[in-house]
Amino acid sequence: MDVSKCVALALVVVVAGVFCSGSAQASDNGIAVDQSKYVNRAILPDFTATECPDNPRALTQVKGNLYRHTTGAGLAVHSGLVLITEEGALVIDPAMTCTAGWLRDEIRKRFNVGVRYVVYTHAHTDHISGAQVLQKDGAIVVANMRALEPIVGEKLPTAVPNRVFDEDMMIALGGETVLLHRVAPSHSDSMIMVLFPKYKALQCTDVCESKSMPYNDFLDFYYPGWIETLDWVAAQDIDFIDVGHYTPATKPDEAALRAYMVDLHQQVLDLVRSGQSWDQLYRNVRFSDEVKKWTAFDTMHTLNVMGMYRWVSNHRRGEW
Questions:
Q1: What is the number of alpha carbons within 13 Å of residue 237 lying toward its C-beta?
Q2: Strand, helix or coil at 278?
Q3: CA 309 to CA 320: how far, in whole Å?
Q4: For the chain, where are the alpha helices, taking DSSP H only?
Q5: Per-residue pLDDT tens digits for 18-71
Q6: Tell me: the pLDDT tens digits for 250-308?
Q7: What angle do helix axes 223-234 and 251-273 make, rounded to 10 degrees?
Q8: What are the sequence ranges of the domains in the chain?
Q9: CATH homologous superfamily of domain 3-250?
């Protein structure tokens, strides 16, 4: 669904009365989750909960009421967009428990509002840790419905979502509209895009890159959906993309990423079909001079080949 269709749908919903008219009033069309089922659920130790007073953190303005929070330094930085309104803030992916309290307090100190919504981009703990801190203070946690099972099943020490959705969800907050959309399985089956049409801004965590290599060996990876998602991104009217790490990106960055992904897939597929073993294959994949300049190329390029080799090996009809 492109921006124009999403906005049109949002207008229909407003007219229909799902969102309150007149004075601004926060609302959404998500599906409520029965929290009582998970009160005593088992959870693993929270590796992000240790005190981290020296951890770099920031909340910087993107444009208008849209901000970007960061925590960590260098290759370890995690980020998410933050919308500030008179009714409260919407925070994407708190990332760490030890910094979630700081973010809450910083928003309160600078804007005199609390956190009203927390949005998960996907069910990976390095992005959604810390949401329990904000949920305890009254924030509504939102995720794709496919995120619920791994959060509970993997015993992730973060908040169980209060609201879920299948393909699309809208949040009205302080006169602003935020559109949540699931394109396809990509970097996680529970991955969503978060669109801020007014600001031509998009949260495209881990699927999009900023002149940087995809992480590791494509953990929790769906190649066709990744390409479909990048095609969807290309069709949006946006000029700012937060990728959840490093620095923000642009649509040309995602076009370059798509070209890299397609080329890597085709090279690995051709080499496998030629009968090459892994020990031969990874030595024969070639990378462009542009890609060799990307962040983390030296540490990630062989791992990327490994992940694509695994995908290709598991999704082809060879000799049985």
A1: 9
A2: helix
A3: 18
A4: 3-16, 97-111, 125-128, 131-136, 148-153, 223-234, 251-273, 278-284, 289-292, 297-314
A5: 333 334 689 999 999 999 999 999 999 999 999 999 999 999 999 999 999 999
A6: 999 999 999 999 999 999 999 999 999 999 999 999 999 999 999 999 999 999 999 99
A7: 150
A8: 3-250, 261-314
A9: Ribonuclease Z/Hydroxyacylglutathione hydrolase-like (3.60.15.10)
